[in-house]
Amino acid sequence: MVLLLAAGSWIAPATLAADVPEPDGYRMEEYRAPVPDTLAGATVLDTARAEALWKGGAAIFVDAMPRPVKPANLPAGTVWHDKPRTSIEGSHWLINTGYGQLPPEAQTYFEGRLASLTKDDKATTLVFFCEPECWMSWNAAKRALSLGYTDVRWYPGGATEWAAAGLPTAQASPVP
Question: pTM of this prediction?
């Protein structure tokens, strides 16, 4: 399918989610790109279903947005401030856990924080999100499934769609 512009030129439409297949493993690059409609083993949520879980207190919401990295080439004496993160109110920001390949310390951090948040109950409902068209939450949810969590939900609309719906947000701080 192509679209004809008024000026007479043709463009292809953006890739639709239905056109994006699930990879066999984790997404390893280009994390800000269209995502699939599915995640095998997980339940995909729209905003209304995510809101219902949130309002019922029936799930732990996990923000998988990465933390901005301090540039290595900053001039000496430059003060670095993390970019503020507005997230779903009450969520837990597990930074840098959505990359395709995690260094051992990040894997240990992810496993330990999930165990703590769920009180070692792998049947606890977990909702993973970040931003629209972001593979970080998809990868993090897939990783939770690989760790044996059985009620994993993925909210691809993330904090942006949540806020656009007028739902409660808050400034997030990374879970230590």
Answer: 0.86
